[in-house]
Automatic annotation (TrEMBL):
Name of the protein in its database record: CAZy families CE9 protein
UniProt keyword Hydrolase present: yes
GO molecular function: N-acetylglucosamine-6-phosphate deacetylase activity
Gene3D superfamilies found in the cross-reference section: Metal-dependent hydrolases (3.20.20.140)
GO biological process, one term: N-acetylglucosamine catabolic process
UniProt entry keywords in alphabetical sequence: Hydrolase
Source species, domain of life: Bacteria
The keyword Zinc-finger is annotated on this UniProt entry: no
PANTHER family documented for this protein: N-ACETYLGLUCOSAMINE-6-PHOSPHATE DEACETYLASE
InterPro entries: Amidohydro-rel, Metal_Hydrolase
Pfam family, one: Amidohydro_1
Family note: Belongs to the metallo-dependent hydrolases superfamily. NagA family.
Domain Amidohydrolase-related: 43-91
Length: 108
């Protein structure tokens, strides 16, 4: 995926892709090949630019994908028996700390 990539040319699998201004396009033909938007930036955009309530935006990043992938029985919410994956955000919705399967990881 081109997520987080700066402007330039890349190989995504067997496809040549050019990233310009945050948009990845196939080198041949110019079709959109994806976005460079990272999940934390998408979260901030949903809340601050689109006015989505934080709980609804969190569900968009957790419960919705878990349900779509068919893993909602052990991922996508905080409850007994679920993976303890948690992120702590500041008021600007920038990541401060995180835990995956109950173990803290670097937010840097």
């Amino acid at each position: 995926a081109a997520a987080g990539s700066s402007d330039g040319s890349y190989l995504l699998g067997a496809l040549a892709v050019d990233v310009v201004d945050g948009v990845a396009r196939l080198h041949e033909g110019g079709s959109i090949a994806g976005s460079t938007l990272l999940l934390d930036a998408a979260f901030r955009r949903a809340v601050f630019d689109l006015g989505v309530a934080v709980p609804e935006a969190v569900a968009m990043l957790t419960a919705t994908p878990a349900r779509t992938l068919g893993v909602q029985d052990h991922l996508g919410r905080l409850a007994p028996g679920y993976a303890a994956d948690v992120l702590l955000w500041d008021e600007g919705l920038h990541l401060l700390r995180g835990w995956a399967a109950g173990r803290e990881f670097s937010a840097a």
